[in-house]
Amino acid sequence: MNRKLATVLAAGVGLSLVLTGCSAGGAASGGNGSSKKGGLISIIVNDPSNPYWKTEGDVASAEAKSLGYKSNVSASKGDTNTESNLIDTAITNKSVAIILDPANASGSIGAVKKADAAGIPVFLVNAEINQAGLAKAQLVSNNAQGAAIGAQQWVKSVGDSGNYAELFGAPSDNNAQTRSNGYKTVLSQYPDLKEVAKQVANWDRTQGHDKTQSILQANPDIKGIISGNDEMALGAIAALKEAGKLDQVKVGGFDGSPDAVDAVKAGELQYTVLQPVATFAKKAVQEADEYLRTGKTGAAQEKQAFDCVLITKENVDKVTSPFTLSE
C-alpha cells in the first residue's frame, strides 16, 4: 500500500559539539584559528561522472561561494590513497574546512584524523566513517528508511511470490549494507519471495549490466531485481532489454538520478528512491560556515539523517531539478 509521499526535508537533525581542546584551533577560533568568513573550502567527492556525486560537489561549491568562501571540488574515485593525497593538498592549501564524501567507512578514518590534527574541521556527506567524534558532522540520507519504502514499492510491482535477485553496492560503503538490510527486513515478510542471486556491482552501471546478464543465465525465471542504486539498476535494465525480458522482470532503483527519473517516466524502472543529496550537501557547507564563525555547527548531534522520498510514475513529474522534489 502506498505511503503518503513527503517532500525532501529541508534540514535534518543537527549537531552540538563540545570543542575545547579537540583541535589545533580552539572553539572560540572556529577550529582553524579564525572566526572570520572567507578562505578556501575544499570539497572531495567520490566520482563526478555519476550525477549523484556531481550534484553533491556542485551544490556544495555553489553554497560555499554564496557564503563568501572560495571552493574547489576534487574526486577520490573511491580510492583511499587518492583521498589521503587530496586531504594533504587541502592542508597545504590552508583550507578552512573540508567537505568530504568518505571513500571507505574504515579506510577514511586516517584522512579525517590528519585534517583534524592540522586544525581543519571536516564535514562528512553521503557516507559515514566508523568512528564518531572526528568529523564535526556526518550528514547522510536515511538509508534504512529509504530502503524500506523502496522495498515496499518493489513488492507492489513484483508481487509477493517468485524468484528475485539483488544488485549490491560497494562493500566498503556502509550505505550498501544498510540498504541491503532494509530490503531484507521488508522482503523477509513474504516467504514466497526467494532471493536466488545477490551480486556485487559496486554502484556501477556497466557492472550492473554484466552481473544481470550472469544472473539471467543462471536464473531465467526471476521476476524482479532490487538494486542498491540507480546506476546498477539502469545497467540491469539495459541487460533485460537485450534479453527481451524487461516486461517480465521488474527493477527498482535508489538515488533519484536524472537518468533514473527518465526511466521511471518511460515505465522501464518501477521506482527510484530519491536521496536528498542537494539538501544535505548545502546543509554541510552551512554548518561549516556556522562552525568557522562560532565554534559550533548549530546542530544537535554529529550524525544527521535526511529522509528519502519514493519516486514513482505518479509523482515523477514533481522532480524539478536533480535530486529535488517540488512541493
Topology, pairings included?
Elements lengths: L39 E6 L5 H16 L3 E6 L4 H13 L4 E4 L8 H9 L4 E4 L11 E5 L1 H16 L3 E7 L5 H14 L5 E8 L4 H14 L5 E4 L2 H14 L6 E3 L5 H8 L6 E3 L2 H18 L8 E4 L2 E3 L7 E3 L2 E2 L2
Parallel strand pairs: 1-2, 1-3, 3-4, 4-5, 5-11, 6-7, 6-8, 8-9
Antiparallel strand pairs: 10-12, 13-14
Helix pairs in contact: 1-9, 2-3, 4-5, 6-7
Explain this structure.
- The chain is α/β, with parallel strands linked by helices and about 325 residues long.
- Helices cover about 35% and strands about 20% of the residues.
- It has 9 helices and 14 strands.
- The strands form 4 sheets. It has a 6-stranded parallel beta sheet with strand order 2-1-3-4-5-11, with helices on both faces. Strands 7-6-8-9 form a 4-stranded parallel beta sheet, sandwiched between helices. A two-stranded antiparallel sheet has the order 10-12.
- Helix 4 (about 145-160) crosses helix 5.
- The two termini are about 20 Å apart.
- Residues about 1-35 have low confidence and may be disordered.
